[in-house]
Prior knowledge:
Number of domains: 1
CATH class: Mainly Alpha
Order of helices and strands: HHHHHHHHHHHHH
Oligomer: single chain
Helix content: over 70%
Number of helices: 13
Amino acid sequence: xxxxxxxPNETNPFKPKMLLLLSLGHLITDIYQGALPAVLPFLKDxxxxxxxxxxxxxxxxxxxxxxxxxxxxxxxxRGKKPLLLPLGCLVAGLGxxxxxxxxxxxxxxxxxxxxxxGAASYHPEGFKTAHFFTGARRxxxxxxxxxxxxxxxxxxxxxxxxxxxxxxxxAMPIIIVPSLCFxxxxxxxxxxxxxxxAIPAExxxxxxxxxSMKTKWLPLALIIAVVIARSWIQMGLxxxxxxxxxxxxxxxxxxxxxxxxxxxxxxxxxxxAGAPVADRWGHKKFLVWSMFLSALIFPLIFVVNGILLxxxxxxxxxxxx
Length: 321
């Protein structure tokens, strides 16, 4: 049976200010996740790594930031864990910011695991807390929270590559500043974040009834399969684009960063634009069409160049993210 804290209160009003604060934390946390694929070519050269060893770094980051999330979700469902919000953001920044300080491969792996654990801890608590402030506009409210992560993934590659290009890899520790700022900022709204409004008795009874029902495993499995397919596309492109344009074509790193950023910015716009449409049109129908359009647009990235490549990547981000 789910706890009271884990259940959104639909009788509460829509609170965009609190959603924007949580979205900001989501943005900053995912800056570090989005920046990692972009700096992998530099880490490869920094430590003279093979492609296999470089791939293990990304695998370790994705494993801890994604596959470990259900554990933090389980802990979050058992009671209020608001401290995970500033702490998760800080840990994500701490692990990433020191990647270029060490010259040992083992330490690099340890740091990406630490950063991934920070991201894994922020997301479940962030989504749960955001639900308290969505009111009846669930998709729109969660889209505001989610778009922060999309923007963070978009900003991350450009920010990290800019630090490397204009300063040096050794200057990467300055990227921890946004996470420090968020920890300070959330302290000013700590009462509202840590103590959201109580759930009315009627809704509590409904939640207990819903919690006693058997989980519908087949629909849940289908949704997870869609998430996996979407994540393959997104993470595959985030990893493929920097290596292809920097190592294979020996092109400009900033150009590769701009391609990744535009893809993710398209995703951010798609998240905000799609949420109200999904609320009105129907979530299932919207999901089916977005995946269908993704399948049509994706092959075009292999046949277009120049400005058309930017347009196609932006459209692909719009429909897939």
